[in-house]
Specification:
It comes from Noviluteimonas lactosilytica. Helices cover about 45% and strands about 15% of the residues. With about 280 residues, it is an alpha/beta fold. The longest helix is centred in the N-terminal third of the chain and has 22 residues.
Length: about 280
C-alpha cells in the first residue's frame, strides 16, 4: 500500500472520533458486561462478502470479526471477501471467483452489496429493462441460488443514496428483491442516512461516498445481529488491521483477507465501550 494511502488511516480515525463525540450524548451509558467463562468455546460462523469499496473501505469484514471476538460470549467469524473498486455483483458473478468459493464447504451467510445506487433501477419502470439493471437482478438470483446450495442465508447489505427520495427508492428495491430471492435486508443505507442527518454528511461519509469508521462500525453491529442472532454488547473492540481507503490496491480475483498489500502497518485502535454504545444505538 502506498505511503499516501497509509497517511489516510489516521484521518479516517479522527473523523470517526469526532462523529462519536457528536453522537455520544444521544446514547445510553453502556452496562458493564460479564466476562465469558474461561472454557467457553466460541461458535464459528463462515461468512462470504461480495461487493465493492463500500465494503472494503475501513475493512467491514475485519471490523465484524473484531466486534464478534470482543463480545462477553464471543463468536468466531471467518470471512472471505471478493471486492473491487466500483464493482457490481454481476461482475463478481461473471469472474467466477466468489461463486467458486461458495462451492467450497459450508457457509453460514453470504453478504451481497451491490454498487451504490444501482438497485434503485428495479423500482423505476424506465430503467428496469436496462442491461445493468437486468444483470444486477440476475446476479442476485444466481448468488442466492448458489448460497442456498451451500447452506447459507443471504443478506442484502443495502446502500445509501444522495437524498431522502433516492434512499426511499433504494430501500423499496432492496425489500422487493429480498422477497424474490428469500433474503434478509440489512438496512445500512437508511440507518446511515439517519446518522448523517444527526451528525452531518462529512462525519458519516467523509468523501461524500464512502463510510466513516463510525459508519463501518454501525454496519458491523447490524451484520452481527443478522448473522449471530443477537445484538452485540458495548465492549472495548480492538481494530488491529488497516482501515483501508478507497484507493487501496484491491485484487478482485483473490479473497481480500489473503492479500498481503492490505495488511497495513500494525497500528491498533481500541474503540472503547462507550464509543461502541454510540454505534450500537445508531444501528437500531
Amino acid at each position: 500500500m502506498s505511503p499516501s494511502s497509509r497517511r489516510r488511516f489516521p484521518r479516517a480515525i479522527a473523523t470517526w472520533v469526532l462523529a462519536v463525540c457528536a453522537f455520544a450524548s444521544h446514547a445510553q451509558d453502556a452496562a458493564p458486561a460479564n466476562a465469558a467463562p474461561a472454557n467457553a468455546k466460541p461458535k464459528t460462523y463462515r461468512v462470504l462478502f461480495v461487493g465493492n469499496s463500500l465494503t472494503y473501505v475501513n475493512d467491514l469484514p475485519a471490523t465484524l470479526r473484531a466486534l464478534a471476538a470482543a463480545q462477553p460470549t464471543p463468536a468466531k467469524i471467518e470471512t472471505q471477501t471478493f471486492v473491487a473498486p466500483g464493482g457490481s455483483l454481476a461482475e463478481r458473478w461473471d469472474d467466477g471467483k466468489a461463486a467458486a468459493a461458495l462451492g467450497e464447504g459450508h457457509w453460514d451467510a453470504v453478504v451481497l452489496q451491490e454498487r451504490g445506487g444501482l438497485l434503485a433501477c428495479m423500482v423505476d419502470p424506465a430503467q428496469r429493462t436496462q442491461p445493468d439493471c437486468r444483470a444486477s437482478d440476475r446476479a442476485h438470483r444466481d448468488f442466492a441460488d448458489r448460497a442456498k446450495a451451500a447452506g447459507a442465508r443471504v443478506l442484502l447489505l443495502s446502500t445509501w443514496g444522495p437524498d431522502t427520495q433516492y434512499q426511499s427508492k433504494l430501500d423499496r428495491a432492496a425489500k422487493q428483491l429480498a422477497s424474490r430471492i428469500n433474503a434478509r435486508v440489512v438496512p445500512a443505507g437508511a440507518t446511515l442516512r439517519t446518522l448523517a442527518q444527526r451528525n452531518g454528511d462529512k462525519a458519516t461519509f467523509p468523501d461524500g461516498i464512502h463510510p466513516s469508521v463510525l459508519a463501518t462500525l454501525v454496519m458491523a453491529v447490524q451484520l452481527h445481529e443478522a448473522i449471530v442472532g443477537t445484538a452485540p454488547q458495548a465492549t472495548d473492540v480492538t481494530l488491529d488491521f488497516a482501515l483501508l481507503p478507497a484507493n487501496a490496491a484491491i485484487q478482485p480475483d483473490t479473497p481480500m483477507e489473503s492479500q498481503p498489500q492490505l495488511k497495513g502497518d500494525g497500528r491498533k485502535v481500541v474503540v472503547k465501550a462507550d464509543a461502541m454504545a454510540a454505534a450500537i444505538e445508531a444501528a437500531k
